Amino acid sequence: xxxxxASRLFAAGLILSGAALMVSGHRSASKYEALRHHxxxxxxxxxxxxxxxxxxxxxxxxxTAQVSFRTSRGREIRTQVGIPAAQGHAMARQVTPRTxxxxxxxxxxxVLADANDDPPEARKASGRYLLIGGVILLVLGRLYSRRQAR
Length: 150
Known about the structure:
Layout: H1 8-38, E1 40-54, E2 59-70, E3 76-83, H2 85-92, E4 99-105, E5 108-114, H3 120-149
Antiparallel strand pairs: 1-2, 1-4, 2-3, 4-5
Helix pairs in contact: 1-3
Organism: Roseateles flavus
Protein name: DUF3592 domain-containing protein
Keywords: Membrane, Signal, Transmembrane, Transmembrane helix
């Protein structure tokens, strides 16, 4: 039943998972670092709103907002951004205006985040946690493969 743990395939899986987590963590941390350092803010109009139910932990659903905004260089951007459940509920019931303040990268306006969402430091920290998790999996995979080689 537990023979999978005694195989080289398991060690390779740990190493590949670790590498994937490291890449994901680095990209996430880099994105939010760039947004924090030289991101620009713009007022975006919400053109459509969709909710996504999460039944696993019985939490409120999350919302995705289709937004359009104009960059400081005059370029019209249409994309989507995740928004907190409370804000999505308020927009859906038309309690609050259907606008968002977004922070985007001038060189790539499709890289954006809700400016009022989690502070960039918290997002950057989550990227670091993925990076650390990846390193741990890499080390475990390497140690496990050495143990199997003996």
